[in-house]
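dumping this here so i dont lose it
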């Protein structure tokens, strides 16, 4: 399994932006399916966004138009640019890679509060 390490979480006020990064332990150029999920206490982990190895992004309806997912194959990293943050975006954000088996990072906390 590929090892994934997220970074970039923290505290933001509503309307602010944050960028999350996910570094992989191996080349990601051949990984077709990488993305971001999030989870709040007592709820199931939910899909946020994905980016294919052809750079095709997909977004959940709740973040579409505010979040941007992109990948840098040269750095074996994917990113999630989160704009116009809302309190309901508060969650632990996880990076996920599907190489035939699913790998998850350890998660990074994002808290949006005034």
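and the seq i came up w/
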């Amino acid at each position: 399994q590929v090892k994934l390490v997220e970074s970039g979480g923290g505290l933001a006020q509503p309307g602010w932006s944050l960028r999350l990064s996910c570094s992989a332990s191996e080349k990601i150029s051949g990984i077709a399916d990488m993305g971001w999920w999030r989870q709040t206490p007592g709820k199931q982990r939910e899909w946020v966004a994905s980016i294919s190895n052809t750079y095709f992004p997909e977004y959940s309806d709740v973040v579409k138009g505010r979040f941007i997912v992109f990948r840098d194959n040269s750095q074996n990293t994917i990113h999630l640019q989160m704009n116009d943050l809302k309190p309901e975006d508060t969650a632990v954000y996880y990076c996920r890679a599907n190489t035939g088996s699913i790998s998850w990072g350890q998660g990074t906390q994002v808290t949006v509060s005034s």
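The first strand starts at residue 4 and ends at 7.
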